[in-house]
Write a structure and sequence with these properties.
single chain; mainly beta; Immunoglobulin-like; five-stranded antiparallel sheet; 2 helices; 48% strand; flat; disordered N terminus
Length: 650
């Protein structure tokens, strides 16, 4: 049970406590000034609050930093508790620790926290230990005396801080607890209006012994048939009141089910335009004891549209005692309406008519009804014919209709899909043909030429005549256009800078027999002029444009050599053997001529030693042991470094 308490605060003198005299009906706060004195004093503030469950929580601020339950296990307090006339003194460990928290934000404190004592260092550290003391018995005085800390952690900060006493008497504010009876019931015979019902509830109170119970309708009263809610209330000696409610039920001992009176079988034709009929009927039920409620379990209600076929309507009758009976009857709706057919449209054909899909009529119950006939369905002669159609549903209801068939050639030849005739310099179109449903294939005629040799787009106007006055026309396009790009062929070139340090590249030097299926009209290079900044290998793009604007390009390597030395190799590309040509511009005592691969790794040395200036020197380059790819000849002298690209083709 959770206790509720009333609380009044007061301060009483120390002598009153020592004589054991207490004030009843309030909680007095007694601050006793003790005689303890210690050099290491660390309790700086004390507060308390009464928790909702009646426990008294006492908070003690200290300056020993953050603590836990474990670290406070041997750093508690000496506490004396007095309940009535019995006292006990114990060394108690705190129930909890709170760190870095202001006094008005402590757990459980709220707005009801009371400050009992503050020392000079209060609120500086905000580290707390707290105790939870259980409430005393009803109206019994309780005194809690904090004698002092058992260690420096909770010892006093200043003299006369401890002891500190909380005393008071807790009053009862909790109402009695009422246990209602198991919901009482009674059964009476049919025709009786109610019954006397007895019952009893119990009440318990924490202070008042056997509190009295008052009922909104007393036990032994007469209760009518049905359910009556009864309220039981109880008030203790301190004016605390509680109440509960419970049902009292009186039922009739009726075991006879009601009797249903339903129609016999109802038969009806469908309503016009509906696959069903509106049917009304009445249902009745009687009972020997009480009124009866009727519930439809299946079927359709009276006045509804019942579909063609059999609908079973099932009803349930229930009396006030829960007795029930079920019964059923059938409503049969017959389909008596013939299929509805609209006027059939005439069918015309040019050469023939072949009926592959029969017309349909609409039946409200069965949906589309496909027509049937004994007349022929294929007509190949010119003229007008009739077909007699019959439409019958599955119930034997039939309708008839006549359809007219007209055979007459009124169709023009079917236009062919004529492809574009595409040529480069000239093109000739074949004679176009069309298809006619009656004559078959028809050749087209035109006054336009069929052969063209000038560039551009030309139109041939075709005419297709089936001989029956039906003519179709179509256009065909002849397009002369060169769409083939030129074939570009290039060769690598070695340029030597002149005395001014420049060199010029021409298209003829790069062109290696480029061609076009028609005519080349322009050549171009993306770079023609070179100087000392281009010494070495350079990639240039050589472009070719034909008369129709088709363009293609290809790259080539232009090796620019300084006037000082000339290094080359031929043939280039080569497969097995090549000749390296070298001309130095100054005498050299020690040169190196090496071959490197495209990754910069030296493959072999071709020559090492002295050479005279302005003398053409030739060296054999054996490529039989080389893989296909790009390599570089590298000349290293005391004054320069010259590279030349060679290609090994395997």
């Amino acid at each position: 049970m959770i206790w509720n308490y009333g609380l009044t605060l007061s301060v009483i003198p120390k002598s009153t406590y020592l004589r054991g005299k207490f004030l009843k009906g309030f909680l007095a706060i007694l601050l006793l000034m003790g005689t303890y004195s210690t050099a290491l004093a660390h309790a700086v503030q004390v507060a308390y609050v009464v928790l909702p469950n009646g426990f008294i929580r006492v908070y003690i601020e200290h300056w020993h930093g953050n603590q836990t339950i474990e670290s406070l296990a041997h750093n508690g307090m000496s506490v004396t508790t007095t309940v009535g006339t019995e006292s006990i003194t114990q060394q108690l460990n705190p129930n909890g620790a709170v760190n870095d928290t202001q006094w008005d934000n402590l757990p459980g404190a709220g707005s009801n926290i009371v400050i009992l004592k503050r020392g000079p260092s209060a609120n500086l550290y905000q580290d707390w230990a707290y105790y939870d003391f259980p409430p005393a018995m009803c109206n019994v005085p309780l005194i809690i005396t904090l004698n002092g800390g058992v260690s420096v952690v909770l010892s006093q900060e200043t003299n006369q801080f401890w002891p500190l006493t909380i005393s008071g008497t807790f009053s009862d504010t909790a109402p009695p607890s009422i246990t209602p009876p198991t919901p009482p019931t009674a059964t009476v015979l049919c025709g009786v209006s109610g019954s006397v019902v007895n019952f009893s509830a119990t009440a318990f109170d924490n202070c008042t012994s056997n509190p009295a119970i008052v009922y909104s309708k007393n036990p032994g009263s007469f209760f009518p048939i049905g359910t009556t809610m009864v309220t039981a209330s109880s008030t203790d000696d301190n004016g605390n009141r509680s109440q509960v409610s419970f049902p009292v039920t009186v039922s009739t001992n009726d075991l006879t089910p009601p009797v249903l009176n339903l129609p016999a079988i109802i038969v009806s034709n469908n309503d016009a335009g509906l696959c069903g009929a509106k049917v009304t009927y009445n249902t009745l039920a009687t009972d020997n004891c009480s009124s009866v409620s009727i519930t439809q379990l299946s079927g359709l209600p009276s006045g509804a549209i019942f579909p063609v076929g059999i609908t079973t309507n099932t009803f349930k009758a229930t009396d006030a005692s829960g007795n029930w009976a079920e019964a059923s009857f059938e409503i049969i709706v017959k389909d008596a309406e013939a299929p509805q057919v609209s006027a059939l449209a005439s069918i015309s054909g040019s050469c023939s008519v072949n009926i592959v899909k029969a017309p349909t009529a609409t039946d409200k119950c069965e949906g589309p009804i496909i027509g049937k006939t004994t007349d022929k369905l294929v007509f190949t002669e010119q003229g007008t014919f009739t077909i007699n159609w019959t439409f019958a549903d599955s119930k034997g209801n039939t309708s008839t209709a006549i359809q007219k068939i007209i055979v007459k050639d009124t169709e023009s030849p079917i236009l062919p899909t004529l492809p574009n005739i595409v040529g480069v310099c000239s093109a000739t179109a074949p004679v176009a043909v069309a298809t006619d449903r009656c004559r078959g294939t028809i050749e087209g005629s035109t006054t336009d030429p069929l052969t063209y040799s000038s560039p551009g787009v030309h139109i041939i106007n075709w005419k297709f005549d089936d001989g029956q006055g039906n003519i179709s026309t179509a256009k065909q396009y002849v397009i002369l256009k060169d769409t083939t790009v030129p074939k570009v062929e290039t060769r690598d070139v070695v340029l030597h800078l002149n005395d001014n340090g420049t060199a010029t590249l021409t298209e003829d030097q790069i062109n290696n027999g480029s061609s076009d299926n028609c005519k080349i009209t322009a050549y171009w290079l993306d770079k023609k002029y070179f100087d000392t900044s281009n010494i070495g290998m350079n990639t240039v793009t050589f472009g070719v444009t034909d008369a129709n604007g088709n363009y293609a390009s290809k790259t080539a390597t232009v090796t620019v050599l300084n006037k000082s030395s000339a290094l080359s190799s031929y043939p280039n590309p080569f497969s097995d053997q090549a000749t390296v040509s070298l001309t130095l511009m100054t005498d050299e005592e020690n040169i190196n001529l090496d071959l490197y691969d495209s990754n910069g790794a030296k493959v072999k040395r071709i020559y090492a030693g002295a050479l005279k200036a302005n003398k053409n020197s030739f060296f054999s380059l054996d490529g039989s042991d080389l893989k296909g790819g790009i390599y570089f000849l590298r000349l290293t002298t005391s004054k320069e470094l010259v590279n030349f690209k060679v290609v090994v083709s395997k």
